[in-house]
Amino acid sequence: MAVIALKCPSIEGLGAGKAADLTYWESAARMIADVSKSDKIVVEKSTVPVKTAEAIEKILTHNSKGINFQILSNPEFLTEGTAIEDLFKPDRVLIGGRETPGGQKAIQALKDVYAQWIPEERILTTNLWSADLSKLAANAFLAQRISSGNAMSALCEATGANVSQVSYTVGKDSRIVPKFLNASVGFGGSCFQKYIPNLVCICECNGLPEVAEYWKQVIKINDYQKTHFVNRVVASMFNTVSGKKVGILGFAFKKDTGDTRETPAIDVCKGLLGDKANLSIYDPQVNEDQIQRDLSMNKFDWDHPLHLQPMSPTTMKQVSIVWDTYTATKDAHAVCILTEWDKFKTLDYKKIYGNMQSVTC
């Protein structure tokens, strides 16, 4: 059994930021075909566009030298910060394969591996295309929930409603449940921002412009939320943050991880820097080099090999990275909490407020 777990970056050039680059997958398939000496089950683990398995199958078949290959799609549903727990107690394991005797035999072989520690009722089997699409669909639905909550937060601000109370009330409906409903600065990470545009691209390529437009709105609301947040910060300080210190608490896209890929903090910081604010940034797990690099990178640069990324971060005079919450907020005119670290819930906010500058300065 051969398992392929590779990155699937967005392509550059035509379709940039939307279509997926399958170069690494093609290379891996050709390598497997070249070194294989007996029949193999090839399992794709990464999130890939629908029909990727078919492309891998063609490459392997045309270079098989008589060897039989069965392709399975076994998309990953682990989440950062809880990956080990997710591995041992997953909501489900999904295995997709051909609806042929050989394909069903391969599915059963992989199912037997998972059955060593996962209850059989949580191991789902589908055809190849359903498995590929299910991962994209799961990401899209989760992102949609976040964007829905954030869209509602803007309406709550405009009407005087409390978004936390509204989210709590809505989440009590058994048809909706409370997860992913809390308002935030926006979603980040390597999945949502990349794979929803992949889904949009697939819809457009299959002649479904209305469906594509629907999913585009999820990304648009997310971008709006970050811009809206920056505008509120600026508006709260007499419509200018020029020369003013803004404390930034949290830079990772989620708590319990140092991952900064597509973190909303990047866009928020760039928005404030564009208005000439001075930023003092603190995150428990993200180092100075990473923050400086992220703020100097173009969108999706992180998704490509290191040699294509900025060799060394560009130091910005308006940005300082500190390793203490109270240093980040001392003499600040405003404080922005951009990552939901648990430690931020227990800070002495009276002390922080007492050490801040008056907004009238």
Automatic annotation (TrEMBL):
Gene3D superfamilies (alphabetical): Cytochrome c1, transmembrane anchor, C-terminal, NAD(P)-binding Rossmann-like Domain
InterPro entries (alphabetical): 6-PGluconate_DH-like_C_sf, NAD(P)-bd_dom_sf, UDP-Glc/GDP-Man, UDP-Glc/GDP-Man_DH_C, UDP-Glc/GDP-Man_DH_C_sf, UDP-Glc/GDP-Man_DH_dimer, UDP-Glc/GDP-Man_DH_N, UDPglc_DH_bac
Domain of life: Eukaryota
Catalyses which reaction(s): UDP-alpha-D-glucose + 2 NAD(+) + H2O = UDP-alpha-D-glucuronate + 2 NADH + 3 H(+)
GO cellular component terms, A-Z: nucleus
Entry keywords, A to Z: NAD, Oxidoreductase
The keyword Oxidoreductase is annotated on this UniProt entry: yes
First-tier enzyme category under EC: oxidoreductase
Record-listed NAD(+) binding positions: 47, 80, 194, 261
Amino-acid positions noted as binding substrate in the UniProt annotation, renumbered to this chain: 77-80, 135, 180-184, 188, 254
SUPFAM superfamilies: 6-phosphogluconate dehydrogenase C-terminal domain-like (SSF48179), NAD(P)-binding Rossmann-fold domains (SSF51735), UDP-glucose/GDP-mannose dehydrogenase C-terminal domain (SSF52413)
Swiss-Prot/TrEMBL GO biological process terms: glycosaminoglycan biosynthetic process; polysaccharide biosynthetic process; UDP-glucuronate biosynthetic process
Domain called UDP-glucose/GDP-mannose dehydrogenase C-terminal: residue spans: 247-359
Protein family (similarity comment): Belongs to the UDP-glucose/GDP-mannose dehydrogenase family.
Protein known as: UDP-glucose 6-dehydrogenase
